[in-house]
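Exam revision sheet. Question 4 asks you to relate a sequence to its structure. Input first:
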Amino acid sequence: MSLLTQNSELRPHLIWNWTIPALSVKLDDGRRINTCPSAGVCAQYCYARNGTYRFSNVLAAHKRNLMLVLDHTDQWRQQLNAELSSARFTKQRPSRQLPIDRGQLADDWLRQWADSGFPAIRIHDSGDFFADWYLQEWLRIAEMNPSLLFYAYTKEIAMLSSAVLPANFRWLASTGGTQDHLIHNGMRHADVFPNNDAMVAAGYESQEATDLLCVLLPTNRIGIEANKIKHFNKKMAGRRFSEMQNQLHSQQEKKQ
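Answer key, structure tokens:
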């Protein structure tokens, strides 16, 4: 059974995905696991708690992934490394065709990776680095597969900021979490906007052409347009995630 999956958006760009349940889940044995410890306002707008993610077979697969990590960590690591050693991840491919010039790529390693044509692994389209030991496992996996690009959006900013990362492991802070205050101007981060016009006006660049742009673009300001979910868009009321999180933080401080 494959641990990594693809969807229609990732497949054309040779991106494979690892996923676990979003925010919080009750496992079959009764354990309640918080997979997004630093979630903030994002929890109210989480696409990974809507649509196909709520299908029973999808949720069951995500729970199996989490239980494998929690209860059989060595087996999970070995199984994932075996999968990453298969031809789909190791065979030679033509250089990547990207929507930006090679000279715009953020650094030399990324340029070499793009020229190699090797795939990318997105860690979590759902869930987050819920514990430091779990992050360390991913760093170990990345070190064992140096030709592949591993990347992740995360709200665990303190954890990732203090980690020693291999060159092929990239991350960016994702706004809307309780650690937003740790995001500084020089930190690569992604903010979610109600529309593209708001994104451009704020000086952010979109990753819409391919999700890889979140780590390939030379800018640290990555913009994501909100999913077209009516009740979410209404609640956003023209605000971006960082603004909503800041407003929530201010409200909470006033109550103290």
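Marking note for examiners. The two ends are 50 Å apart (CA to CA).
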